[in-house]
Every structure is written in structure tokens, then in C-alpha cells.
Amino acid sequence: MDLKPVDTFDQISPSDFRNNYYLPGKPVVIKQLAQQWPAYHKWNWDYFKQMVGDKRVGLYNNVKSDAYTPINTADDYKTFGEYIDMIRRGPAGWRIFLFNIFDHAPELVKDFTWPEEYMKGFVKKYPMLFTGGASSITHMHFDIDLSHILHTQFAGKKRVLLFPFEEQHKLYRKPFEVLSLADFSNYYKGNGTPDYEKFPALKLAKGYEVILDHGDTLFMPAGYWHHMEYLESGFAMSLRALQPSISGKLKGIWNLFGMRTIDTVMKKTAPVWWYKQKERRLLDNAARVMG
């Protein structure tokens, strides 16, 4: 893989952001965007435990999904307070994603402002909290609705691997899914992952790598592939903004209600046949990009 560092600024003007990153579809880190928010100083484990510690949440482990795994099915459940206690004790490969903490504690929306000077179209009903214990992994995928994302890290450090959407066949994208067949777990340790013998097209993939720390805000353009590994227990918030173009919105709608429905039905009715068909197709796509 050919990886470059993500451009990083303490601050960036809205015009420079738009011209150099938003319009070209290039990731960037803004280190001080969130420092003006009350959340930068207020949000921590104790505060969240006090606010929503009794709420039951779904937990996800590090096991990659296979042909028979239902979409977004939790591997365990705990209260948020129990989960916080668990990941505080040390490395714990469990994470929470798409947790709308603001449904349970709506006063938290007063702790940040929507950065509309940078882009419009924010889906204000759905700011989301992403939480993980040290060693937990979010496997390589792209967001199904194809929104632009501002992802702010509030606690702990997290390593992020990023690729443009166009690299999908080099990443062995599963047809009718948003997931890669390849496993990037601990890819930076040089322990044999990813498996270049099994997935040779990965050698040609061009992307970015960055480590997010407290207060860092990462802009992920629509459709960007991302793989995240929690180096420390931590949490982040994602603010989503729809693409301004009609075609971008329609692609997101198709993914949500067309592509995902087809895949779900086929996994239930003919999982083995469906998996083999998708595997053959993704291998053909990878062979084609290798020339």
C-alpha cells in the first residue's frame, strides 16, 4: 500500500477548506476546530456515565463479518456505565457505533456548534457517538449513505487508514456491501496483515494514514474507505452532511434502500451461493485493476 500522511492544520479558513479539500474530495485534519466547543473540556467518561450510564447499548467485537453475519447485529449488550467501567480497566476489544447519545441526553447538543462555515447539509437529527476500548477495531468500510463526515476525537488516540472510494476494487470490496473482504487489523505492525499473497491488489492501493488525538477533527469526504484502530480507550463524534448534488443523494438512497435490501434478502435465502457469486466478482474486479 502507498500511504501518505493526511494534511493537518491547527486552523484553516472556510475558503481554503472548500477549495483544497471539500471540492477535490481530499481528507484533512483540523486540530483546533473543536477547541472552542464546551464539549472539548466537558466531555469525559465520568460526565457521560452520569448522563446516560443506565442506557443499554449494543457492543461489537473485533471479529470481521462473514457471508452469514446479519448487518449491524450487536455481539453483546451492557449498560453504557458497565461498558465504560470495562474499557477503563485496560485493553478491551469492544466498541459502540451509531449510538445517538443525544436522544437520551438532548442537552448535549448545546456543547458543540455545527460548523456550517465549512459546509452545508448537516443531518442535525443524527450526530453520532463512536466509542471503543483500547485494541478495538472498526474494519475497513465506507459509510453507506455517502455523506461527508467531520469526525472529532474527544478522548484517547486512534489510528485511521483512509482510501478514496475509487480504490474499492484494490481493497476487495464485497459486491452489494460497503465492506472489504481483506483484513487490515494491526496492518502497521508488519505481522502479515494485510495478506498480500491472498489479496495482491492491495499493494497498488493508494491512501492516507493519520493518528487522531484529543480535539482533532478529521474531514472524511463522501464515500471514503476507512479503517480505525483504538490505540487507547476513547470516543469520537461524527457530524454528517449530505452531498449537495442530486446524484450524490440518489446514490446514498440506493445504497440504503436498494443495495442493502438485495444483499439482506440474498443472505437469508441463498447465503452460500450468494457469497460465492460475490467472491468471484470481487476477485475478477481485483484482477482487472492489476492489469
Structure description:
With 291 residues, this protein is an alpha+beta fold. It has one domain (2-289): Jelly Rolls (Sandwich), CATH 2.60.120.650. 26% of the residues lie in helices and 25% in strands. It is built from seven helices and 14 strands. Strand 2, helix 1 (14-22) and strand 3 form a beta-alpha-beta unit. Helix 6 packs across helix 7 (271-289).
Keyphrases for this structure?
single chain, 291 residues, alpha+beta, Jelly Rolls, 14 strands
Give the full name of the CATH homologous superfamily: Cupin
Strand order of the largest sheet: 2-3-12-9-14-7-6
> Which architecture would the CATH scheme give at its second level?
Sandwich
State the major sheet: 7 strands, mixed
Please indicate the count of domains.
1
Tell me the structural class: alpha+beta
Distance from N terminus to C terminus (CA atoms, Å) equals 17 Å
Which regions are unreliable across 5 or more consecutive residues at pLDDT < 50?
Answer: none
Give the count of helical stretches.
7
Task: Provide the CATH top-level class.
Answer: Mainly Beta
The gross shape turns out to be: globular
Strand fraction: 15-25%
